[in-house]
Design a protein that fits this description.
By secondary structure, this protein is α/β, with parallel strands linked by helices. About 30% of the residues lie in helices and about 25% in strands. Helix 1 crosses helix 4 (about 70-80).
Length: about 190
């Protein structure tokens, strides 16, 4: 599904009270196994929504920036945040403008429940590669379309999306959690 105006689309849902699958302990354990502790390292949470994952990264010691194109989501994340080491910004990873992080300086980039909604996946992956440090980690959590009911398959990624996502990384590790797959990708 292509979303013509992502900021308006997600604003309507977040402001209307829609909430999404919570980060669970299995997912957090898999993330910690691949990302480790963040002392002295930076993280970028793309599509941070209510900020739960960004706050968890800050608890792991990462200096974390959460971005979302939705003002309603960032407002919710900011209202709920008493965690130090995390900031939230309205920013669209697909927009050509600058982001609140420096290229080549991010140790961990997370994209949870985001990849299926990216319009230009190739450009997105190229941008992620430019933002990551050479020893960085790109952590993607996404539903798999073939594991979802037919009427919900559009929120997951296809085999073609999976192939695009995993091509060109020096290391690819996956962890399956019911309908979702976690990808740990290294430059």
């Amino acid at each position: 599904m292509t979303i013509d105006d992502p900021a308006a689309y997600w604003d309507l849902l977040w402001a209307g009270g829609t909430r999404y699958r919570a980060v669970d302990e299995t997912e957090l354990a898999a993330l910690k196994q691949h990302a480790g502790h963040g002392a002295g390292r930076t993280a970028l949470d793309v599509g941070s929504g209510d900020g739960a994952l960004a706050r968890h990264l800050a608890h792991l010691g990462y200096t974390t920036t959460g971005i979302d194109c939705s003002l309603a989501a960032i407002s919710l994340a900011t209202e709920n945040s008493t965690t130090s080491g995390v900031t939230f910004h309205v920013a669209d990873i697909e927009a050509p403008g600058p982001l609140p992080v420096a290229e080549g300086a991010v140790h961990l980039i997370t994209a949870r429940l985001v990849f299926a909604f990216i319009t230009d996946k190739s450009a997105f992956l190229e941008r992620v590669r430019h933002l990551l440090t050479p020893d960085g980690l790109f952590w993607v959590v996404t539903p798999m379309a073939d594991r979802l009911p037919e009427d919900r398959a559009w929120v997951g990624i296809t085999t073609g999306d999976k192939d695009l996502l995993t091509t060109g990384w020096s290391a690819v590790h996956t962890t399956d959690i019911d309908t979702m797959r976690c990808y740990a990708l290294r430059p």
